[in-house]
């Protein structure tokens, strides 16, 4: 490839990832919890989407303090989800259908019920003691560190047994592993090899920016506060992170045809490049949080902010380094609620627009289960309705700090992770075809209309639009590698850009608003044909295009 495609081709750049939250996908045992056999049953559905990879949230043995992100055995399957034989069958079924499998690797921390931690906490001279971060109480209270899920946001937890504190950046049942100990790193590489030898194709490195730590745990300088930006700046990208990534690359990644994607990229574009640029020999891909963080309060973001964020990252990664592109995952509420509109009149159109967007941008698209249907937030209202430790402990913390609990609950109704974890909507039956019994989280009431069975039959459904958009991306490398150029930056409601690869040019127009909106841009005179449209019509008159609310179109342009 020449000029405009300055990126080298790779299968993982050309892939489209479908993220499955196993707990919520399909239950075959009648316990209200999804399982691996459920995914096996739905392999033909997954294939029908056209996606080329799946990413599975953790399926390993876990006491489920944080829904599987607290692992007690990295080489065993959570009994609720099935057996290793089920997993092997799943992998075979995927590969038979030419779908790759990406696994979560959660190694910033383990569960406190992992054998390593049980040993480690048992005595100060246990051989696993240094697998975790301990601070002997006789040295006084350690300096403050932030914890995401702790009621008091405190990462140090006093443990009576050995009169010492251990570190947990997430919940108290998720003690941080000590990456500065080479034995821990070797354990992790062996675990990764175990899965790579089974044939998995990729790894998603959970919370990875936090693994390396200055183990003297100095006091944070003035200026530190508990905002996300500060938390990442002072806890992330520790002193040896690149050394460890290079080591992981050498020991594991370079030995298999796999890729690894980092969750989190530090605090700057430069940090991100240092993780994924090819000559660094570290990871292949990363995802940053700046775009999802655009909506982190009841005030939604503006289109100008969306344009600015995506353009900044795209421009910086134009020729070097590769990113994931996504609008939702299991840590977010539904993309329609955050970036589109769940009002009946706009729900479907905005879901189609958002899918058009992520599937027409550079980067590997990650699509969260249910977003191909336009699933929306469940709208939990009372704290008792939540299952997620982040929401529950966040509530306790807000209460302790005397914050306005009504505002907290309203914010959770929009943003809580449980909104994005409700059961997959397969059909209009009572439990949406997800389970024969009461599901672990309630099914969204709108499953009577928003479901696979209904949408498969409707030609213009969100689902069928998604499939068309996937097919379009797979047909045109321009949508994968083509140069992105933002047009009409100041336009308040339309996001317009071109993608260009050699002599193939495409124009993408997305009306991010509930009102009709027009645009005039010189590219319009070069329009050749309409490639995709989420409405039946499009108004093009006198070099001006008028888009209906949330209308999304892609044109090919003349050479
Ligand atoms: C990551 C995961 C999230 C989990 C946390 C702790 O951010 O995506 O779901 O709670 O790490 O493992």
Annotation, overall tally of beta strands: 21
| CA-based shape | globular
- The N- and C-terminal alpha carbons lie at a distance of 17 Å
CATH-assigned homologous superfamily of the largest domain: Glycosidases
Domain unit count: 3
Q: Could you say what the CATH topology of the largest domain is called? A: TIM Barrel
> What is the architecture of the largest domain at the second tier of CATH?
Alpha-Beta Barrel
List segments where confidence is low: pLDDT < 50 over at least 5 consecutive residues. none
Radius of gyration: 23 Å
Q: How big a fraction of the residues is strand?
A: 15-25%
Number of helices: 17
Overall pLDDT, averaged? 97
Q: Structural class of the secondary elements?
A: alpha/beta
CATH class of the largest domain: Alpha Beta
List of distinct ligands in this structure: alpha-D-glucopyranose
Note the main sheet: 8 strands, parallel
Secondary structure: helix percent: 25-40%
């Amino acid at each position: 490839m020449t000029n405009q495609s300055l990126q080298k081709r790779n299968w993982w750049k050309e892939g489209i990832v479908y993220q499955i939250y196993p707990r919520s996908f399909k239950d075959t045992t009648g316990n209200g919890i999804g399982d691996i056999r459920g995914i096996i049953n739905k392999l033909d559905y997954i294939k029908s989407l056209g996606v080329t990879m799946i990413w599975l949230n953790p399926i390993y043995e876990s006491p489920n303090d944080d829904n599987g992100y607290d692992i007690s055995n990295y080489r065993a399957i959570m009994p609720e989800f099935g057996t290793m034989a089920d997993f092997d069958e799943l992998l075979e079924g995927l590969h038979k259908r030419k779908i790759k499998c990406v696994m979560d690797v959660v190694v910033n921390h383990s569960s406190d019920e992992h054998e390593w931690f049980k040993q480690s906490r048992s005595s100060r001279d246990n051989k696993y003691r240094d697998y975790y971060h301990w601070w002997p109480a006789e040295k006084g209270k350690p300096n403050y560190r932030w914890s995401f899920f702790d009621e008091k946001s405190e990462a140090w937890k006093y443990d009576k047994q050995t009169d010492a504190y251990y570190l947990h950046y997430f919940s108290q049942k998720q003690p941080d592993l000590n990456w500065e100990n080479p034995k821990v790193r070797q354990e992790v590489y062996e675990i990764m090899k175990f899965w790579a030898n089974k044939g998995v194709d990729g790894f998603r490195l959970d919370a990875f920016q936090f693994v390396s730590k200055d183990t003297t745990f100095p006091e944070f300088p003035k200026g530190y506060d508990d905002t996300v930006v500060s938390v990442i700046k002072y806890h992330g990208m520790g002193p040896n992170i690149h050394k460890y990534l290079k080591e992981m690359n050498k020991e594991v990644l370079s030995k298999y045809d796999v890729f690894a994607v980092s969750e989190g990229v530090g605090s700057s574009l430069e940090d991100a490049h240092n993780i994924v640029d090819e000559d660094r020999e570290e990871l292949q891909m990363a995802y940053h949080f700046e775009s999802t963080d655009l909506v982190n309060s009841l005030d939604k973001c503006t289109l100008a902010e969306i344009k600015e964020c995506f353009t900044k990252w795209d421009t910086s990664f134009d020729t070097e380094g590769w990113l994931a592109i996504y609008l939702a995952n299991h840590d977010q509420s539904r993309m329609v609620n955050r970036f589109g509109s769940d009002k009946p009149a706009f729900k479907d159109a905005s879901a189609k627009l958002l899918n058009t967007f992520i599937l027409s941008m550079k980067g590997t698209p990650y699509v969260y289960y249910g977003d191909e249907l336009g699933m929306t937030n469940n709208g939990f209202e009372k704290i008792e309705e939540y299952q997620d430790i982040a929401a529950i402990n966040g509530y306790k913390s807000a209460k302790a700090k005397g914050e306005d609990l009504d505002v907290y609950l309203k914010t959770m109704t929009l943003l809580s992770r449980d909104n994005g974890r409700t059961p997959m909507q397969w059909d209009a039956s009572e439990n949406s075809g997800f389970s024969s019994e009461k599901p672990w989280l309630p099914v969204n009431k709108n499953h009577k209309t928003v479901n696979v069975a209904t949408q498969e039959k409707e030609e213009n459904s969100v689902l069928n639009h998604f499939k068309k958009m996937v097919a379009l991306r797979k047909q045109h490398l321009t949508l994968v590698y083509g140069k992105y150029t933002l047009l009409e930056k100041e336009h308040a409601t339309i996001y317009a850009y071109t993608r260009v690869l050699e002599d193939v040019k495409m124009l993408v127009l997305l009306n991010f608003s509930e009102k009709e909106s027009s645009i005039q841009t010189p590219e319009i005179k070069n329009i050749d044909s309409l490639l995709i449209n989420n409405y039946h019509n499009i108004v093009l008159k006198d070099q001006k295009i008028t888009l209906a609310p949330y209308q999304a179109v892609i044109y090919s342009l003349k050479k």
